[in-house]
Amino acid sequence: MTNRQIPVGVSARHIHLSQQHVEILFGEGYQLTEMKPLSQPGQYAANETVQVSGPKGTFPKVRILGPARSQTQLEISKTDSFVLGIKPPVKESGDIAGSAPMKLTGPAGEIELQEGAIIAARHIHFHTDDAKRLGVKDKDRLRVRTGGERGVVFENVIARVSDSFALDMHIDTDEANAAAINNGDIAEIID
Amino acid sequence: MTNRQIPVGVSARHIHLSQQHVEILFGEGYQLTEMKPLSQPGQYAANETVQVSGPKGTFPKVRILGPARSQTQLEISKTDSFVLGIKPPVKESGDIAGSAPMKLTGPAGEIELQEGAIIAARHIHFHTDDAKRLGVKDKDRLRVRTGGERGVVFENVIARVSDSFALDMHIDTDEANAAAINNGDIAEIID
Description:
The structure is a homodimer. By secondary structure, chain A is mainly β. Chain A has 2 domains: 12-120, no CATH class; 122-189, Beta Barrel (Barwin-like endoglucanases). Chain A is 15% helix and 47% strand. Chain A contains 4 helices and 14 strands. The first copy, chain A, starts with a strand and ends with a strand. The interface between A and B is medium-sized, with 22 and 22 residues. β12 of chain A pairs antiparallel with β12 of chain B. Chains A, B: Pathway: Polyol metabolism; 1,2-propanediol degradation. Chains A, B: It is an enzyme of class 2 (transferase). Chains A, B: Its cofactor is Zn(2+). Chains A, B: It catalyses: propanoyl-CoA + phosphate = propanoyl phosphate + CoA. Chains A, B: GO terms for molecular function: acyltransferase activity.
C-alpha cells in the first residue's frame, strides 16, 4: 500500500448490546462468547445472535459483536431498514439519541426499544500513529476514492483516531455493493 | 436546475421481456398492458409481474417494463444478486452476452435462461439537445456528484444520447441507498 491507501472492511448488519440487555435476552449473568476477532483490537463477533424485528419485517439472526457496551446499538443498511420498516438516521456509532425503534428477541426474553437502530456513518479508524503519518485529526471529514469500473468517491468519511484502533475504513453493504467493493479491498484518501 | 444538474431516477429490480418470452410466460398472443408511463418516452411499467428464481432464492413478483424488447434482460442490484445466488456482471443495458442465468415463472409457463441477468451500469439518458447543451457525447464516461451528508461522486457514469431519450440519470437501489438518494433528487455532472 502506498501512503494514503487504506483497507476497507464491509460491515454487514450487526448489533452491540449492553450487559443489561444481554442478560434480559440470554439469562441472568450471561456472558457473550467469542467466535472470531474483528479488525479492531479487543472487538469480536460473538457466537450469539438475536432476532431483530420492526413493523414490517424480521431478521431472525443478527450477529452480536462483543464485548458488551454501555448502550445497545443496531447497525443496519438502508436496504435492511426497508425490510424492517423503520427509518434509522445516518449516525456515528455511539450517537443513538433520536435513532429508530426496534424489538429484540432472545432465548430468555425480549426487549422493545424506543431507539437504538442507526445506519452507521462511513468512517475510518486510525491508530494515532497512522493519523499522524497521514496528517489526519479525529473528526476530520475525508474524501475516499475506490477504484474500478464501479468506482465512487465517498465524501464525508469521518476520521476516528485512537491508540486502540487499527487502520480500517468501515462502510456498509449498500456502500460496498454500490462500489462493487469486497471486504479487504483497498481505497485511497484523496483529501 | 442550473446547467449541469440532472434528475436521478432510482431503478428497483425489473425485467424486460422478449415477445416470445411474454407468450411462453403469459400465453400465446399475450400482450403486456401498461400500468404507468416511465420517464423515458414510450416506456412503461406493465401491470404484469413475473417470478424470478436463482439457486438460492426467489423474487415472486418482479415488475415487467414494456414494451417487449428483442432480448429478455433482468436488471437487479448486487444486494438482490446475493438473494438469488447468482453473480451478474455490471453491464450496459442491452449487453447480455456472458450475463447470469435465471429461471422465470409466469401463469402460463416457465423458462430457464442461461443468460440475461445483469447489474445495470449507472448511466444518464440525454436527449440530443441536452447533450449538445452540456457538451456530452454518446458513450462518454462522466463523474456525477450527489449532495448531502452521505454524498458520493459516481465515476464511470455512461452517457447515452438519443432523440428518443429524456434527461434522467439511472442508478440502482444499492447506489441510491449508499448515497441516501431518493427518486427525483438532483445530482450534478462535475466532469
